[in-house]
């Protein structure tokens, strides 16, 4: 009986330590917060070969985009490790509605794992009917359009009065973003991203003819 009595505080202490080791994903050291505004929080995730993130909590609707082809592992809190394979250009949405995820991620490859996690903090026009842009649609849901642009056919296509966007260049030569109202250009480089304010008037232009992949997220 004394053994069981002494064991209870130890179990409680262990549970407390495990709980305190869990952090919100935006506070996890390998998830660098590079941008936050009313609509999004953009986390740039780099995990080097042999490294593992801390246990962290996903509880906000998010879109993910993979920039590297990398082998890895992940572990949901309280479960066994499982093998993962990340592919360049892979993207998905998860609402985390009644589906909070607590996990950690490891890199078992010889190359870095690079992913972005765009947390969707607010809607733009909730309930409004929005049609997709004339680009290839990766997926669509109640929160976001995800487009994939893989050639220069989008060059100089004027886009105006849309929701906030995040343009992310997975591979290829620079893509130019040209703000028509401000008459200002910005280059998007491979592995980088650009936030586009709602209501902007702009066009995109691929700078080269080599294979490219640009993913464009539009918040509804």
Notes on the protein architecture:
The protein has 220 residues and is mainly β. It folds into two domains: 22-120, Jelly Rolls (Sandwich); 136-219, Jelly Rolls (Sandwich). Helices cover 9% and strands 47% of the residues. The protein contains one helix and 19 strands. The chain has one helix at residues 2-20; strands at 23-24, 31-36, 40-47, 56-58, 62-66, 70-76, 81-86, 91-94, 101-107, 113-120, 136-140, 144-149, 159-160, 165-171, 175-179, 184-188, 193-196, 201-206, 213-219. The strands form four sheets. Strands 1-4-9-6-7 form a five-stranded mixed sheet, with no helix packed on it. A five-stranded antiparallel sheet has the order 2-3-10-5-8, with no helix packed on it. Strand 15 (175-179) and strand 16 form a beta hairpin. It is globular and about 50 Å long. The N and C termini lie far apart (60 Å).
How does the SSE layout of this entry go?
Blueprint: H1 2-20, E1 23-24, E2 31-36, E3 40-47, E4 56-58, E5 62-66, E6 70-76, E7 81-86, E8 91-94, E9 101-107, E10 113-120, E11 136-140, E12 144-149, E13 159-160, E14 165-171, E15 175-179, E16 184-188, E17 193-196, E18 201-206, E19 213-219
Parallel strand pairs: 1-4
Antiparallel strand pairs: 2-3, 3-10, 4-9, 5-8, 5-10, 6-7, 6-9, 11-12, 12-19, 13-18, 14-17, 14-19, 15-16, 15-18
Neighbour order of strands in the largest sheet: 1-4-9-6-7
CATH architectural designation of the largest domain = Sandwich
The CATH topology label of the largest domain is Jelly Rolls
Domain module tally: 2
CATH level 4 superfamily of the largest domain: Jelly Rolls
From the N-terminal CA to the C-terminal CA, the straight-line distance is 60 Å
Count of alpha/pi helices:
1
Unreliable parts = 1-20
Radius of gyration: 20 Å
**H/E element order:** HEEEEEEEEEEEEEEEEEEE
How would you classify the helix and strand content by structural class?
mainly beta
């Amino acid at each position: 009986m004394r053994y069981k009595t002494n064991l209870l505080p130890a179990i409680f202490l262990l549970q407390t330590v495990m709980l305190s080791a869990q952090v919100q994903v935006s506070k996890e050291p390998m998830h660098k917060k590079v941008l936050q505004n009313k609509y999004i929080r953009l986390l740039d995730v780099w995990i080097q070969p042999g490294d593992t993130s801390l246990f962290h909590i996903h509880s906000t609707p998010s879109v993910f985009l993979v920039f590297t082809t990398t082998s890895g592992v992940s572990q949901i809190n309280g479960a066994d490790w499982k093998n993962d394979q990340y592919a360049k250009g892979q993207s998905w949405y998860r609402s985390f509605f009644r589906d909070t995820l607590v996990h950690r991620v490891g890199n078992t490859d010889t190359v870095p794992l690079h992913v972005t996690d765009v947390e969707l903090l607010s809607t733009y026009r909730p309930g409004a009917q929005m049609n997709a842009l004339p680009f290839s649609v990766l997926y669509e849901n109640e929160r976001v359009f995800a487009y994939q642009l893989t050639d220069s056919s989008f060059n100089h296509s004027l886009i105006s009065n849309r929701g906030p966007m995040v343009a992310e260049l997975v591979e290829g030569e620079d893509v130019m973003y040209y703000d028509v109202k401000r008459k200002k250009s910005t280059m998007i480089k491979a592995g980088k991203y650009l936030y586009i304010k709602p209501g902007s008037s702009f066009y995109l232009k691929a700078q080269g003819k080599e294979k490219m992949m640009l993913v464009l997220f539009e918040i509804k």
